[in-house]
Amino acid sequence: MKRGVRGGPRRGAAGRVAKPALVLSFPSETSFLGLVRDLSRKMAEAAGFDEGTAGKVALAVDEATTNVMEHAYHGATDQEVEVRFEDRGEELQVDVLDRGSTVDPHSLPRVDMKKLETYARERRTGGLGIHLMGKIMDSVTFERSARRNVCHLVKRKAAGEKG
């Protein structure tokens, strides 16, 4: 199994050098979630987001990664998870990839926002991750590509955040 962090300049549109992308590949063990959160926060800050927004982006990436471990891999710790970060100038895109079971996000129950406080009081766990990702990120999409599940998370930058 490959593990590590890769990055480097790439050629973007019109042949100009795009900002470096970063790829993190790691085993499907929950002990790596702290690293994923820290790296997500740092990448969002490097892309120009303020500390609060960067923390929210890190939470969304953590939720997506946790979903892979719990649902796609059913708790197996010997699988690979890959997280790709790309600063696209106007937006930060984070892709979470896995080779596990496919879950149709449209088949999940909808979250009743009126009951959110009740869920919190009851300390309800599960079922809120995709909803939370959608509230934090500007776009959350899922696809199957090259025999892998891909969760695309996109956060657009405000005018002052484009760096």
Structural features, described:
With 163 residues, the chain is α+β, with helices and mostly antiparallel strands. It has a single domain, classed as 2-Layer Sandwich (Heat Shock Protein 90), CATH 3.30.565. The protein contains four helices and six strands, in the order E-E-H-H-E-E-H-H-E-E. The protein has helices at residues 33-46, 51-72, 116-121, 129-136, and strands at residues 4-11, 17-27, 80-87, 91-98, 139-145, 148-156. A six-stranded antiparallel β-sheet has the order 1-2-3-4-6-5, with helices on one face. A hairpin with a 3-residue loop joins strand 3 and strand 4. Helix 1 runs antiparallel to helix 2. The model is unreliable at 8-12 (pLDDT under 50).
List keywords for this structure.
Heat Shock Protein 90, 163 residues, alpha+beta, 31% strand, 31% helix
Instruction: Give the tally of β-strands.
Output: 6
What gross morphology would you assign?
Answer: globular
Might you state the CATH topology name? Heat Shock Protein 90
Distance separating the two termini: 35 Å
Number of folding domains? 1
CATH superfamily: Histidine kinase-like ATPase, C-terminal domain
Instruction: State the helical fraction.
Output: 25-40%
Question: What's the SSE pattern?
Answer: EEHHEEHHEE
Q: Count every helix, treating DSSP H or I runs of 4 or more residues as helices.
A: 4
Give the biggest sheet. Answer: 6 strands, antiparallel
CATH C-level category: Alpha Beta
